[in-house]
């Protein structure tokens, strides 16, 4: 009087042999708990939607014969208009070309009439050991020592470099 099917009987016999039972009701309860407490990410926050990217197309040039007269005329007009257009200066001032600028005097001469601080008055010429006087003095561009212009081999043009630095 067994109402069980042969498959179920085999499973129950197998289970009885090992003295193990599979609790079907507990796994069903766990599944129902997991399903009831699970939350989808879409419930919390909406996913961003991709926008359709618009592709800008440049106006394509027409095929023309490069040596034709109308094409050459158009090119020459474009070049002339580009050359004639006035470019704005970013700073608002007109800058002089490098050739137009006056050259800065590179050598540094000390005029005789100009009074200097006490520290320069105490400086002696490295060649003649004479202290600062009314004669012309010049400063070396590399070591910054002061020399009498007469004691140095300075020709009057370019940057002065003393005898010690050469």
Automatic annotation (TrEMBL):
Gene Ontology molecular function: any one: zinc ion binding
Biased composition (Basic and acidic residues): 14-23, 97-107
Keywords: Metal-binding, Zinc, Zinc-finger
Domain annotation Zinc finger PHD-type: ranges: 124-166
Region (Disordered): 1-67, 85-110
PROSITE patterns cross-referenced by the UniProt entry: ZF_PHD_1
Biased composition (Polar residues): 24-40
Ranges of compositional bias, category Basic residues: 49-60
Protein name: Zinc finger PHD-type domain-containing protein
Organism: Acanthoscelides obtectus (Bean weevil)
């Amino acid at each position: 009087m067994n109402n069980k099917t042969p498959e179920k009987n085999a499973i129950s016999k197998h289970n009885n042999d090992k003295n193990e039972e599979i609790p079907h009701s507990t796994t069903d309860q766990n599944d129902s708990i997991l399903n009831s407490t699970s939350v989808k990410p879409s419930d919390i926050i909406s996913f961003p939607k991709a926008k359709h990217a618009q592709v800008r197309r440049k106006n394509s040039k027409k095929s023309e014969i490069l040596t034709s007269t109308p094409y050459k005329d158009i090119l020459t007009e474009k070049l002339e208009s580009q050359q004639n257009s006035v470019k704005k200066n970013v700073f608002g001032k007109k800058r002089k070309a490098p050739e137009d600028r006056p050259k800065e005097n590179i050598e540094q001469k000390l005029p005789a009439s100009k009074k200097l601080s006490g520290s320069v008055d105490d400086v002696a010429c490295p060649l003649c050991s004479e202290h600062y006087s009314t004669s012309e003095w010049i400063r070396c561009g590399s070591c910054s020592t002061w020399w009498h212009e007469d004691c140095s081999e300075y020709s009057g043009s370019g940057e002065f470099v003393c005898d010690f630095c050469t």
